[in-house]
Structure formats: structure tokens, C-alpha cells
Design a protein that fits this description.
By secondary structure, the protein is of the alpha+beta class. The protein is built from three helices and two strands.
């Protein structure tokens, strides 16, 4: 049996490494993204803050090029 959070950790590791497909939506007020195909139950747990973060990345004031984001068409 695997640890209950193992799936979430594996998905988040793939995301951080840049190997997971990622969908981003944005508005004038916020930017939100999720791994394509992410289990909705896991997404709800992430939004509720049920997982402790181990590091952070502050992208305030950076352009998408400076932040290393892949270009996307609008």
C-alpha cells in the first residue's frame, strides 16, 4: 500500500520538473493553473491547503519570459 499523499507528491514533482502537461487560465485578478487530467478530488485538497509546501517561488514583477514560462498564444 502506498502513502495517501504519494500520488499528489508524484504529480507535483512532475509539475516542478516541467514534465507534466499544465493548463493555465488567467484574468485581470488572478492566474490559476493545474496539471492536465489532475484528479478533481486532489485539486480540491490542494485548493484547501491540505498539503504543506516545501519551497516557494516568487514571480512577482517578472514577465513570462523572465519567469521561464513557455510562450502561449492568447
Amino acid at each position: 500500500m502506498t502513502h495517501p499523499d504519494a500520488e499528489a507528491l508524484a504529480a507535483l514533482c512532475d509539475l516542478v520538473e516541467g514534465t507534466a502537461p499544465f493548463d493555465i487560465s488567467d484574468s485581470d485578478e488572478h492566474v490559476e493553473g493545474a496539471i492536465v487530467g489532475l484528479d478533481p478530488r486532489l485539486l480540491r485538497r490542494l485548493r484547501k491547503g491540505e498539503f504543506a509546501y516545501q519551497a516557494h517561488l516568487d514571480l512577482h514583477g517578472l514577465t513570462s519570459e523572465e519567469a521561464g514560462a513557455p510562450s502561449r498564444s492568447s
